[in-house]
Every structure is written in C-alpha cells, then in structure tokens.
Automatic annotation (TrEMBL):
It comes from the Bacteria. NCBIfam families: TIGR02453 family protein (TIGR02453). Pfam families: DUF2461. This is TIGR02453 family protein. InterPro entries: CHP02453, UCP028451. It comes from Flagellimonas olearia.
Length: 226
C-alpha cells in the first residue's frame, strides 16, 4: 500500500491561484500545478487502496481544475480546490464517495447527491411505509459522531402523492440524502488524514448497505436486479 499525504505546498498553490485566477498566471505556473496534481492523485490512490480493503470500487476520478464557465456568472477559469470521487462497483452497490481539498473549506461527502426520479420515488415510498430502519442507522451514536446529521435539498411541502401530515414527512421531503464531514487545514495536512478519510468512509457503510437494499428491491422486498 502506498503512503502519501497532502503537503502544505498544495494549499499554498491553491491560495495563490485564488488571488491570480487568470490564464497568464496559470500558464506560467503550470509545471507547479502538474506537480501538485500528481501529489493529490497519489493521495487519492492511497485512499482507493484503503477503500478496496472493505468495499468494491469501480473507479477513481480526479476532477479537472478547469471550470465550465459557459452558464456561470463567475468567469474565473480555474477551480481553487482539488476534488476526487470513488464509484462503487455494480448496480447492487449504491452510494458514492467524494473528497474536496481547499484551504479553509475541505470536506468529505457521501451519499446520494442527485437520485434519479425512480430512485427518489423508491426511497420516499420506503420512508412512507417504514422509516424506522433508516432513522436507526442515521441516529447511531458512532455514526453521528463522524457524519453528523443528514443533509441535502428538500421540497418545501410534501412531494406529490405524499401526505404532508405523515410522521416521517421530514425525511420524505428530501431530494438529496447526503452526509458531509468538514476538516480544518491542520487536519488535512496532518500525516494521519488518510486514516481519518478511510475511517469516515468505513463508518458510512451501514447507511450504504441499507440504501443499496432499498434501491435494489421493490416494496415487497423482491430484487429488481436483472
């Protein structure tokens, strides 16, 4: 297993980029950027190796530094962070892992950012029928110590076809089902950060296992996988 960490030079570069977010500066410092990108990729590879000890990972992705400014009021051409994701293998393993590295704004995120229409309806129907298992998983003290409370966008009132007076409407209203863990710069730059990342990702597994079971079965508990 490789050993790597995030160096302070990576954050120093990102801070300089935030002050000089234009093509001329970036092109002059592209060699430095490439070196830091390689360092981050090595760190992500380490995370992936650890993940593969307890989960099946299909692929790792390091996101590009270049921003898509076509539909944005902010026309700065470069992101001021590094980010990566890890996709789980197969239709039977749901959920995803994300890592965001930015001076003053680093975090991990996991869960379901944009469930498609069918998946969102299936989750809501499960919660409508019985949300006890869901609440048990997300309220476990060992889980909340690391991941805190469920986050994500929600509709203002009950979704169409659901009772606004339902006892679990607070969950049913959600459009996203995600968890976020924030880190200070000191924590990110410490030698044991990769251990904290892996510990966090391990802790989310009961939630992933439950959601995978929900999203691969119908309301009768029968598999929907072909």
């Amino acid at each position: 297993m490789t050993d790597s960490k995030i160096s302070k030079k990576v954050f120093d570069f990102l801070e300089e980029l935030s002050k000089n977010n234009h093509k001329d500066w970036f092109e002059k410092n592209k060699t430095t950027f490439k070196a830091h990108e390689t360092e981050v990729k090595s760190f992500l590879s380490n995370v992936k190796e650890r993940l593969e000890q307890h989960d099946d990972i299909e692929k790792m992705k390091l996101f590009r530094i270049y921003r898509d400014v076509r539909f944005s009021k902010d026309k700065t051409p470069y992101k001021t962070h590094f980010a990566g994701s890890f996709s789980r293998l197969g239709a039977h393993l749901r959920g995803g892992y994300y890592i965001h590295l930015q001076p003053g704004g680093s975090f991990l995120a996991t869960g379901f950012w944009a469930p498609n229409k069918d998946d969102l309806f299936r989750i809501r129907k499960e919660l409508e029928m019985d949300a006890s298992d869901f609440r048990k998983v997300i309220s476990d003290p060992d889980f909340t110590k690391i991941w805190g409370q469920l986050q994500g966008d929600a509709v203002k009132t009950a979704p169409k076809g659901f009772d606004k007076e339902h006892s679990d409407i607070d969950l049913i209203k959600n459009k996203q089902f995600i968890f976020v863990r924030k880190f200070t710069d000191k924590e990110v730059l410490s030698p044991n950060f990769v251990d904290e990342v892996d510990k966090s990702y391990q802790a989310i597994r009961p939630y992933f296992d439950l959601m995978s079971d929900i999203l691969t079965t119908n309301l009768n508990g029968e598999s929907t996988l072909k």
